[in-house]
Every structure is written in structure tokens, then in C-alpha cells.
Design goal:
By secondary structure, the protein is of the alpha+beta class. Helices cover about 60% and strands about 10% of the residues. The protein is built from eleven helices and 13 strands. A hairpin with a 4-residue loop joins β4 and β5.
């Protein structure tokens, strides 16, 4: 080997070591950045030693796709669980303190107390107040549900705007990758940025990434709608000014295709957008329907009946705007819980007489039961308490297909909701664990291991020292050769 060849080899070794050291230093500095993919220098042999031909970025397409899918599922499940937790407090209160079941239970107790002491006007007033509380719970719960739906609708609007902004950022990163690849420029930083944006997009809706020539990428949703192809496709959503019971909001469109809506406590939704629509139109509407059925059950159970069975039943203590007609049996009336009220004939606050609950007759003389006016009369009060425990048919559209008593139905609504919430909670734990496992696996495959990088840095230091010694030796030999030639 000639001295010039040896000098060239030492020179190239020093240059390669310098560049490798720069790459390793960058890896170490980005060690805590979860969106950074490890870089490594690719070295090939050449006539005069070796040379670095590229800086390679660590990738694992399979793990990356799995991580994106896990991100979408976890984001959807978390959004659903957060919404359910808020609904619990807004509609039912802490530990279900303001639930219809609790209010109806207290009303039953007040009726029993009144039936045991029917001549006491204070006890009558207490029973009326318990009835007022039932109405407040139903009215307030309905208002809270519709307010919740409006809030979710506004959140969806903000999320869609954020998603469109991410797609615009994705275009910038994708263009940089395509242009840089075409001219042979290092595009690793742009690839990191693009993958980071892609993971954020996955939290909103599930996407599949299709790579094309020059590093270009196309995005399609799980349902097959095109989300990005050279340019972002528009994600659109029109919010609703206000919600009413039984109504549905507008869908979210991706390039004109409606986004699928999730189903179930362990939601089938991927991405928070689908989960939010599920909360707004499915879960919240189901809760509203159950409140409406409870309201119908109260009007029916406390209806005034003609003792001679000649006149039709008429709303009694609890009434609605459709009075004097009764709500149709086993038929859901949207929004009934929002408009149910105390019959003014019973309400002492507006000049009514609470004793009508004992005697009957709010709808006229035909409905009077205590015809003698006895102060100890309690049969009608006892019949009301019995009716609350008598099975009746409920509309299956409310999600609880059963012929049970009103008190049992009000309890079943809590069981139904808790069942959904527990399913959501368990699924959230599993999906969060899956997200963390896939993220860890991806990090192990493509992320920075500080111990490995420090070991490599030590090896490079030794390589640098060896190359420097070789260069000094060649320099000494060249010096000796030149001295001998003089």
C-alpha cells in the first residue's frame, strides 16, 4: 500500500467518523423526543477506504400502522368515557343524588307518610314538594342533556377546524419530502414531521397511509374516503343552533362522505370525531328518551280516574301541555320530561289545594273519590303508591324493553347507563394499554437508545484515535522520505 493511499484512507476515515459523530450526537440530543426516528450513517467500501452514502432513518411500517390504529381507538374510547362521566354529573348528580330514581323514591316515601296521616296539611305540603322535586329533576336533566349536546356540537366544530389545519400542515411536510427526494436532499426531518402530524390526525379519525413515488403519501379513511391526495380534501361540518329532544345533529363529511358513527360502550368508533357524534346523537338521545318515558309513567300513574269508570283518565298531580288528554300508552313522547309540570290545581304556590291529592277532583266532580270529605281518607293515596309499583309497558325505543313498574324502570335507567359506562371504562383501559404497547414497540424499533448511542460514540472515539494515529504515522513516514531525498 502506498503512502498516498494510506493517507487517503486515514483522511476518509476521519471524515466518516466526524459525520458519524454528528449523527450520533443528534440521536442523543433527541433521545427524549418520541417523534424522532433514530438516524444511522450508511457506509460503503470504496477504492480509498470507505464513504458515507446516506443518513438512514429508522422505520417500521407495520408497527407504525399498528400504532396509528391504536391511537385512533384510544382517542375514541377516551372521548366517549369523558362524555359519559360528564353526563353522570350533569344529569344524575354525584352518586346519583339528583337522579329520577332517587327523586321518585323520596316522593313514594312522602306519599306513604301522607297516607298514614291524611289530615295533616303539612304532610300534604311535603308530598307536594317531593313531587315538585321530581319535576325539577326531570326538567333539569332534560335541559342538561340538550346543553351537553350543544357543547359536544361546538367541540366537534373546533375539532374539525383543527383537523383541517393539521391536513394543511401535512401538505407542507409532504411537499418538502417529495421535493427533497426528487433532488436527493436529506428529508429525514421532514419525514419525522410528517409522521408526527399523521399520528395527530389519527386521533381525530382512522387513516391509512399509502406511499407513492418520490416519498409522496396519500391518506384514506377507514371507510374509504380520500383524506389527502397531493392536496387535502375538505372535512366539513355544520353545527346546529340548538338541540331539542329526539333531534339529531349534522354528520361530519370527509370529501363529501359521511363519517361513520360509533356504537356501544366499547365503541366501534375510531378517532374522537366519531365518538363525539355517538355521544351527541346516540347516548344523549337514549338518556333523554328514558327521562321522557319516566315522565310519561308519572303522568299515567298519578292520573285521576273516574270512580264510576265513565269519564276517561285525566292528568292528575303531574301534567303536560297535551292535557286534558293522556299521553298514549307505551309510546315515547319526545321532550315530555322537559315539559312535565305540577298540575296547578294541586299547587299551593299558585293557589291550588294539595288535599286534592288525597280526595281527587282536580278535573271536576266526576273524579272525586273522598265524597264524604273525611279527613282520615287515605284510599286514593294508597292507590297512587300502588300504581307506582304496578307494571306498565314502556316504549322499546328508549332502550329498556320491559314491562315493569315505574320505580323499577327509573332504577333500570341507572343500571343501563352504568353498564354502558363500565363497558367504556374497561375498554378505555384496554385500548390505552394497547396504545402504550404499540408506542413502546415502535420506540424500541425506531427510537433512540441512549446506552447504545453512548457505546457507539465511544467506538467512534476509538476509531477517530486510530485514524489520527495512522495519519500521524503516514505524516512521519512522508517526512522521513522527504528528508532522505534532500
Amino acid at each position: 500500500m502506498s503512502l498516498s493511499t494510506a493517507l487517503s484512507i486515514a483522511h476518509s476515515a476521519l471524515l466518516n467518523t466526524s459525520r458519524q459523530t454528528s449523527v450520533v450526537s443528534r440521536n442523543i440530543s433527541e433521545g427524549s423526543n418520541t417523534d424522532y426516528a433514530r438516524r444511522s450513517a450508511i457506509i460503503v467500501s470504496s477504492a480509498n477506504g470507505a464513504r458515507i452514502v446516506a443518513i438512514q432513518r429508522a422505520t417500521d411500517d407495520v408497527l407504525f400502522r399498528q400504532n396509528m390504529a391504536a391511537l385512533s381507538s384510544d382517542a375514541a374510547q377516551s372521548a366517549l368515557l369523558d362524555g359519559l362521566n360528564r353526563l353522570t354529573i350533569d344529569v344524575y348528580g354525584l352518586e346519583y343524588a339528583t337522579s329520577p330514581a332517587t327523586a321518585i323514591g323520596r316522593f313514594q316515601e312522602a306519599l306513604q307518610t301522607y297516607s298514614a296521616n291524611p289530615s295533616n296539611p303539612n304532610v300534604a305540603e311535603a308530598a307536594l314538594e317531593a313531587a315538585r322535586q321530581v319535576v325539577r329533576v326531570l326538567n333539569g336533566g332534560s335541559d342538561a342533556i340538550q346543553m351537553f349536546r350543544s357543547d359536544v356540537d361546538r367541540t366537534i366544530l373546533g375539532a374539525v377546524g383543527e383537523l383541517n389545519s393539521l391536513l394543511a400542515d401535512f401538505k407542507k411536510a409532504n411537499d418538502e419530502v417529495v421535493q427533497g427526494t426528487a433532488v436527493g436532499r436529506d428529508v429525514n426531518d421532514a419525514l419525522d414531521q410528517r409522521d408526527t402530524i399523521l399520528k395527530k390526525i389519527s386521533e381525530f379519525l382512522p387513516v391509512s397511509a399509502i406511499e407513492r413515488g418520490n416519498g409522496d403519501m396519500m391518506l384514506v379513511t377507514k371507510s374509504g374516503a380520500t383524506l389527502f391526495e397531493t392536496d387535502p380534501r375538505e372535512v366539513t361540518f355544520t353545527p346546529v343552533a340548538g338541540f331539542s329532544p329526539g333531534s339529531t345533529g349534522n354528520p361530519i363529511y370527509v370529501d363529501g362522505v359521511p363519517l361513520p358513527v360509533g356504537v356501544g360502550g366499547n365503541t366501534s368508533a375510531s378517532g374522537k370525531l366519531s365518538a363525539m357524534v355517538q355521544l351527541r346523537d346516540d347516548v344523549a338521545n337514549q338518556m333523554q328518551a328514558q327521562l321522557d318515558e319516566i315522565a310519561r309513567g308519572l303522568i299515567t300513574s298519578l292520573a285521576e280516574q273516574d270512580p264510576t269508570a265513565v269519564s276517561p283518565d285525566a292528568p292528575g298531580l303531574f301534567t303536560w301541555p297535551g292535557a286534558p288528554a293522556m299521553p298514549a300508552a307505551a309510546t315515547l313522547v319526545d321532550g315530555l320530561a322537559q315539559v312535565i309540570s305540577i298540575n296547578a290545581a294541586f299547587d299551593s304556590a299558585v293557589g291550588g289545594d294539595p288535599k286534592l291529592l288525597r280526595d281527587g277532583g282536580a278535573n271536576g266532580a266526576a273524579y272525586v273519590h273522598n265524597t264524604t270529605g273525611g279527613a282520615g281518607y287515605s284510599e286514593l293515596l294508597l292507590s297512587y303508591a300502588q300504581r307506582l309499583e304496578t307494571p306498565m309497558a314502556f316504549d322499546t325505543a328508549a332502550g329498556i324493553p320491559a314491562t315493569i313498574s315505574l320505580t323499577d324502570y327509573s332504577t333500570e335507567t341507572i343500571s343501563w347507563f352504568e353498564g354502558v359506562r363500565q363497558d367504556a371504562s374497561r375498554a378505555a383501559e384496554m385500548k390505552s394499554a394497547l396504545r402504550m404497547r404499540t408506542q413502546e414497540a415502535l420506540s424500541n424499533a425506531t427510537g433512540v437508545n441512549i446506552d447504545e448511542e453512548m457505546t457507539l460514540m465511544l467506538d467512534l472515539e476509538h476509531t477517530y484515535q486510530a485514524s489520527a494515529r495512522l495519519m500521524r504515522t503516514v505524516d512521519d513516514m512522508l517526512g522521513s522520505l522527504l528528508a532522505a531525498m534532500r
